[in-house]
Design goal:
By secondary structure, this protein is mainly α. It has eleven helices and no strands. The protein is globular and about 45 Å long.
């Protein structure tokens, strides 16, 4: 039997409690490197998709998801992410794609730190491999500049406020809405 007390011992729940209490340790160099690579990949939305639709999706995401309590934002992020990560697999089988994504997300429940590694070295690289052929040289340069700026920003103490309040979650959901 699966009880509430067992759910509370899951590593991802413990990680959420740490975030909730604002007891995060300072970001390591590895975390900063990963985040500075992941964060700008969402900026490609405005470069490859209809700009009006992109803006609508981000505004919708901010308007709706910032109304929720932090724990609900995480639940929505998890559900949207399952939907999004399925696109990392190139197969026609929707069932396999969903099972793959559920498997990846299940590993994140047990090993939350693995999510950062996966998103950096698998998901973001797949994303860039799909969109870079659609971009011109100046757009590619802008992504490189965004990556460097992201590295500077994640070192800023003001960045911690966005993490503490989970204000970054609507950004991710907006990106997912753009990449359906």
């Amino acid at each position: 039997m699966f009880s509430i007390s067992k759910i509370k011992t899951l590593p991802i729940i413990k990680k959420y409690e740490i975030i909730k209490r604002c007891q995060l340790k300072p970001l390591t160099k590895y975390h900063k490197l990963c985040l500075s690579f992941i964060i700008p990949h969402g900026s490609t939305d405005i470069l490859v998709f209809d700009k009006i639709k992109v803006i609508q999706n981000y505004l919708f995401s901010f308007a709706i998801f910032n109304l929720f309590e932090v724990y609900l934002k995480y639940i929505f992020l998890f559900l949207f992410s399952v939907f999004h990560i399925r696109n990392d697999v190139t197969t026609n089988s929707q069932l396999f794609k969903i099972l793959y994504s559920i498997g990846i997300h299940s590993s994140w429940v047990i090993f939350p730190e693995f999510s950062l590694t996966y998103l950096t070295w698998i998901h973001t690289i797949i994303h860039y491999s799909r969109v870079l052929p659609l971009l011109n040289k100046s757009q590619i340069c802008s992504i490189i500049i965004c990556t460097l700026l992201a590295f500077i920003v994640v070192n800023d103490t003001y960045f911690q406020h966005y993490i503490d309040e989970s204000l970054w979650i609507p950004l991710i959901i907006g990106h997912i809405l753009n990449n359906r």
